[in-house]
Write a structure and sequence with these properties.
Elements lengths: L12 H22 L2 H6 L6 E5 L2 E5 L1 H17 L3 H11 L4 H11 L7 E3 L19 H14 L3 E3 L21 E5 L5 H16 L1 H4 L1 E6 L2 E4 L8 E2 L9 H7 L4 E6 L2
Antiparallel strand pairs: 1-2, 1-3, 4-5, 5-9, 6-7, 6-9, 7-8
Helix pairs in contact: 3-4, 3-7, 4-5
Length: 259
């Protein structure tokens, strides 16, 4: 009697499917780390921007976030009360009162680091060359945009012909890609103003090709946008408290744009 061929072991279907799905998920997450904005486009329910204030979480699409940040900037410029901004968001964004209050608190700087978005930076490089102020085209656009949104500001970090010192090694300031917006002295009112500006820049990061925003010891980057705001801890050993505060960006918002 001829020997039977060895029986083939059936491979369970569900584990195989699970492995394939897991591999796809890992691949998707790796892509999202490089292009965070793809996460909101590919995964249903993931918003372009998120506001978290206490137990309240509000998802906004990119257009809503830009419009809200612009409304908040105008409110800051005109020194309008918080309740007026909240009322504007109930109509402008069609939010209920609690969600509108959370968005207003974030975008008017009352809640540090409470708004984050997934898009920013740029896919294409911009041409080399600096304008008469020593800024690239994208950096110049950010400068003009902040002035239009918030009114007159104390700006720095650039100079005709470019800057060659005064910043950390490798700083985007040396390429003319960065602008500093100063809020001095460091007090509660200026922290709110700084956070309003920082959140505005994140909300408009896709439109303005913003790569990095740093303020008050926190950092947001387009490349790691899925992580939101992170602690920013430069080496301040041996520095005076005044210098440490500058290095930690307690007195100014740093913004730089894609190369």
């Amino acid at each position: 009697m001829p020997a039977r061929p060895p029986a083939r072991r059936a491979v369970p279907v569900l584990p195989v499917v699970a492995v394939v799905l897991a591999a796809g998920l890992v691949a998707g997450l790796l892509v999202a780390l490089q292009r965070p904005e793809l996460l909101s486009r590919a995964v249903p329910g993931v918003p372009d921007c998120t506001v978290r204030v206490g137990d309240t979480e509000v998802g906004l699409d990119a257009d809503q976030a830009e419009r809200a940040a612009s409304v908040a900037a105008r409110s800051m410029r005109l020194d309008l009360p918080q309740r007026t901004t909240t009322a504007a968001f109930t109509g402008e964004l069609e939010l209920d009162e609690d969600d509108a209050a959370a968005v207003a608190a974030a975008l008017k700087g009352a809640r540090p680091g409470s708004l984050t978005c997934l898009a920013g930076g740029a896919d294409e490089p911009e041409p080399d060359g600096l304008d008469e102020r020593g800024l690239t085209g994208r950096a110049a656009a950010v400068r003009a945009d902040v002035l239009e949104a918030f009114g007159d500001q104390q700006l720095g970090g650039f100079a005709p012909g470019g800057v060659s010192d005064g910043h950390m090694p490798g700083s985007a300031h040396y390429d003319g890609r960065a602008v500093d917006i100063f809020y001095r002295p460091v007090d509660e009112a200026n922290l709110r103003r700084g956070w309003a500006t920082a959140h505005y820049l994140v909300a408009h990061a896709d439109r303005l090709a913003v790569e990095t925003v740093i303020f008050d010891g926190r950092i947001w980057t387009a490349r790691r946008a899925v992580q939101g705001w992170r602690d920013y801890t430069p080496d301040t050993s041996g520095r005076s408290p005044e210098v440490a505060a500058i290095l930690e960006h307690r007195d100014h918002v740093h913004v730089d744009v894609a190369d």
